[in-house]
Amino acid sequence: MKHSIMALSAALMLGGVASAQKVAFEEYNLENGLHVILHNDPSAPTIITSVMYHVGAKDEQPNRTGFAHFFEHLLFEGTENIKRGDWMNIVTSNGGVNNANTTEDRTYYYEVFPSNNLELGLWMEAERMMHPVINQIGVNTQNEVVKEEKRLRYDNSPYGQLIPEVKRNMFKNHPYRWTTIGSMEHLDAAKLEEFQAFNKKFYIPNNAVLVVAGDFNKDQAKEWIQKYFGPIKKRPVIKRETFVEEPITKTIKATYEDANIQIPMVVTAYRTPSMKTRDARVLDMISTILSDGKSSRLYKKIVDDKKMALQIGAFSYSQEDYGTYIVYGLPQAPFTTADITKEIDEEIVKLQTELISEKELQKLENKYENQYVNNNASVEGIADNLATYYLLYGDVNLINTEIDIYRSITREEIRDIAKKYLNPNQRLLLDYVPSKDKAQN
Fold first, then answer.
1. Residue limits of the Peptidase M16 N-terminal domain (predicted)?
2. Which domains does the chain carry?
């Protein structure tokens, strides 16, 4: 009886936290098509102004990859009213920070300022959208920056080609087959006019969402938004191609040699549906069961108990059109990658044939409740979530309701989704090994 009362008390506390964390927002459109979302939070004297554009690596041409990521850098070069090199100085001298990031599906820019600098943040993002200066000196400068980033993150990093190799083998038609950072040869070959055309096509008000979050006066914010973003002209609607991948019906086998590693890695990867689907969320839970933390099934069995691997993990690489579920392991001698694969497969078969326990399901729900609270614990996180749920999911209120989807997932669904997507004939089996030249040395 005592345990039941404690469990009820914990459930009520979690419910209270979730309810208290509900995010209030207002959304509307400007005449030029820019979507605006306002979230007022006076708990701290800060403000975030952010713009997310619906352009990512998948919007590039096969012979001009890397453009979206390149623009993440290029659009800090300056505008007609912000001199080259002054962007960061303006932000820092006014007590702010800023950044940007790019995925296959979108590009996100933001500034965080003391709340008395809302107008400045709005003006700067409007300048980026309306008056960017895209010239040869900026392109040349950022080309070198991107090349150095590629060398650090991919070329010279141990296992740095894991995601690129998975993508290259998993997708044959979809632009997800290339990396976000793209090809340096493509960027070198591109003419200035191509960069200018890319900007003119994608970095437009009717392909973006503006989020203002933090401590601000709503009426004043609307006035400034209209003042700075209202005059920007609407551009032609972007026509997007639909890319369909044929189902994988036979194991794809591949090998990649990496000069930066000494220990081989085995990788199994499965193509999964859009992150907007319920199935993708069930796969998130499956990933948590298998590899989230030292108490997860794969880690406990293969690393702790049997000491067959130095590291084991799994994660869902979620995207707007398709996803990829990736499982990887580093064997510990005398065990091999084949031994690790066999153990991983056994655990997946268990998920496909046996229901997880009620206790495991409750543990999962608790983790996702905690994750939900943490994701909305800062004004920066809320702004990013609001933009993402609007632009990629088409439903801003998922910031409040997506947790209900996770809460409703059943043990039977977990079993059935594992059975639907995680089969040997539906996957890539990648042997990621030290280069032969290095092995001989």
1. 36-179
2. 24-229 (3.30.830.10), 252-440 (3.30.830.10)
Q: How far apart are CA 215 and CA 42, in angstroms?
A: 4
Nearest CA among 81, 58, 53, 70 for reference residue 203:
53
Write down the pTM of the prediction: 0.93
- In terms of Cβ atoms closer than 10 Å to its own Cβ (0-12, 13-18, 19+), residue 434 is middle
102's enclosing H/E stretch is: strand 97-102
As a whole number of angstroms, the distance between CA 2 and CA 100 comes to: 50
The model's pLDDT over 381-425, given as tens digits with 9 standing for 90+, comes to 999 999 999 999 999 999 999 999 999 999 999 999 999 999 999
The sheet that has 322-331: what strands, in order across it?
A: 252-258, 427-434, 265-273, 322-331, 309-317
180 burial class (0-12, 13-18, 19+ CB within 10 angstroms)?
buried
Query: How many other C-beta atoms can be found within 10 angstroms of the C-beta atom of residue 308?
Result: 20
pLDDT score of 152 more than 50:
yes
Rounded-to-integer distance, Cα 149 and Cα 147, Å: 5
CA atoms within 13 A on the CB side of 163: 20
Which residue is listed with tokens 């800062």? 378
Amino acid letter, residue 157 = S
**Which backbone phi and psi does 259 adopt, to 5 degrees?**
-75, -10
Give which of 24, 37, 406 is closest to 229, Cα–Cα. 37
